[in-house]
Design a protein that fits this description.
Elements lengths: L3 H14 L8 E5 L5 H4 L7 E12 L5 E15 L4 H21 L5 E5 L2 E12 L3 H7 L1 E16 L2
Parallel strand pairs: 1-2
Antiparallel strand pairs: 2-3, 3-6, 4-5, 5-6
Length: 156
């Protein structure tokens, strides 16, 4: 049985992969570790959207067992000598993705199976563009995070 957080991450990967505004050649994948973000991406790739569960925080109270699952959504784009100009289009893509995650009904409540659903709480961009990576490696990286609330059940 897959964990609730992994099921949520996989649902996000599936939805983002099917998004009409996903640029051609950009792949979407769930990653388990931050170290794999750049290492596993082929240099010939246009870009990647990486989805990683970064934390699960207990939100239980007297009557309910619940948790907040924080999911990182990292946009990585290969740039060339025109890195600054290309970074503008990656920045726009990051903004469009964030807006879509915030507003689309797909993400309001995500079915996790077994009668459980993850309810979107927030979606924020933490890093618009990592200037050092852009300057040194001609790679655009932005990081957003979303928090989904999951009510697991009533306390006995």
């Amino acid at each position: 049985m897959t964990s609730r957080s992994a099921t949520l991450a996989n649902a996000l990967v599936t939805a983002i992969s099917g998004w009409a505004s996903l640029p051609a050649g950009v792949t979407v994948a769930r990653v388990r570790s931050v170290t794999h973000l750049l290492v596993d991406m082929p240099t010939a790739s246009v870009g990647r959207v990486a989805v990683i569960v970064s934390s699960v925080e207990d939100q239980s109270n007297r009557g309910d067992v619940a948790e907040d699952v924080t999911v990182g959504i990292v946009v990585i784009g290969n740039c060339d000598a025109e890195a600054v100009a290309q970074s503008d289009s990656w920045d726009e893509f990051t903004e469009d993705l964030r807006d879509w995650l915030r507003t689309d009904a797909t993400f309001k409540t995500i079915d996790l199976g077994g009668g459980l659903g993850a309810q979107r709480k927030t979606v924020s961009t933490l890093t618009v563009a990592d200037a050092q990576l852009l300057d040194e490696s001609e790679i655009f990286v932005s990081a957003s995070e979303g928090v989904w609330f999951i009510s697991v059940g009533n306390r006995s």
